[in-house]
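Milestone M4 deliverable, item 7.
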Amino acid sequence: MAGPYYTPTSKPTAASYHSSLPLRKSNLYSLVAITFLCSAFYFTGLWQSSSGGSGITTSNVHPSLPCFPSKNTSASPHISSSSRTIQKLDFTTHHSADDDGGAVTAPDDAVKIYPPCEIKYSEYTPCEDPERSLKFNRNRMIYRERHCPEKNELLKCRIPAPYGYKNPFKWPVSRDLAWYANVPHKELTVEKAVQNWIRYEGDKFRFPGGGTMFPNGADAYIDDIGKLINLKDGSIRTAIDTGCGVASWGAYLLSRNIIAMSFAPRDTHEAQVQFALERGVPALIGVIASKRLPYPSRAFDMAHCSRCLIPWGEYDGTYLIEVDRVLRPGGFWILSGPPIHWRRYWKGWARTMKDLNAEQNKIEQVAKRLCWKKFVEKDDIAIWQKPYNHMKCTEFRRRTKNPPMCHAQDPDKAWYTKIETCLTPLPEVSSDKEVAGGQLEKWPKRLHTIPPRISRGTVNGVTEEVFHRDSQLWKRRVSYYKSVNNQLGQPRRYRNILDMNAFLGSFAANLVNDPVWVMNVVPVEAKVNTLGVIYERGLIGTYQSWCEAMSTYPRTYDLIHADLVFTLYENRCEMEDIMLELDRILRPEGSVIIRDDVDILIRVKRIADGLNWDSQIVDHEDGPLEREKLLFVVKSYWTAPVTQGSKTT
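Output delivered:
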């Protein structure tokens, strides 16, 4: 057959075989010599790599060679043809900015360059855009819900940080301090001055921990709650704060090993959620309106509203019905502010006693119809408790059918799902002493105990064996991550972390002893809905489709982890749009770890180069023969130029 390949057409004769023996021996000696020399050069190079290189911040892990050539040496590993040395990524922060608007170096011809956006997009939240929201119904705050741009409206540029942006203070200092340049808004310092929310001090904001109903500070307020319910024994771990302000309640719960999901709309209280995130406190932009909150049923041990201005008794109790859905059996709902203790505050609230009394009566009636019991009311705080099961509630509901029990619905479905004015039934029990859905262990034991949703077989395809195997897998993987990026093992280098495809939350579970928090996302496109398992482990998270923007501000996260995200969204939406969203929500000098098939990572890396990210493809923890690889990324530091109308003190 013609071509570059040799194909024998007959077997060799014996004579030809014997005549070739001297040559074969010579080739064998040459092969041994070459093998010895190659091994010697290899180990010499390995010794030089491990002994030199001061200032290198990655450990001695061998990255994969680039799968395509690139002229953009600032955005890809540089391989020298003579020495074959690899430029390693610098994961440390430097606080320096370029005044070139984030311009990139000369690119490879195959790399599409993404220019900086205008400074007006510095705080752009695509699905909660204040201008777009005005097109929607203002009734019941529907216009404050998610309303994402159409495909032809998507920005194809990089969101700039404001001029003067600095890396946030490290936790726990960040709980009390934030740089003015990072969130240049003084409105709340005036509007909430007497309530001690926030104070402006030179080039910084200070958060005294105050709130509308706790001017003496969130710490003292939480102590008051702790006198009414037990916050110390580990039975309460996950909480939700509706209308959170700057999230001081959630910030001070963290020292008690309670993690709160704080949310508030993007409204006239300018940048309240942005302040929470800058402080290093978990938060999302959100509102209770016509759609379910993006959390599974039975997620939270405690729910809280401190003068959150949500009309709990209106619309047939719709909003309390939604709180009931996400509240765990036996969980507590805490209310302070109007109408609680109205006899003392009615004049200051500029409302009539009759009006406030009627409001409280409506709330009491809705709670009763939900089978909640009034646990305690003392001074400014009222607490209700959800029943541990619906056995007695079912008997009560034979007489009171408003709201009716929900039928034929998935209680965990919560992505653009309409709120129904019906009571979400709890899993069935065999006695009135049993906890519906299963009893949880106390924190921290519940983190590693088999979650009830798994032990009861209600998560399709996820068994106890799968849970244990996943836990061990991510223990090894997180250890490997820390060996590549040694800053991940340094206390307080990272604070706000996002896991884009969390599955059972084992990545976050292996970081629980570090001073970080992880937002665990279960994509709505995932085959199995596991977010309920994540909450049963005592972690927090949300639903999200990565074909859309996340409900958060730019520069939210210090570290983003993406496990097989781009495989999941192959042929679903554009890869560049997902990468642009990562760029939006990642802080300058933040890091990304992307795990995926090598062919996909090559395409991802091209986009990373176009975003002016420093990136490097690294072998799988099991070695170079695995098709799955890792892309480690550091976002470059740049800000909008001062000439673009940046705010100053």
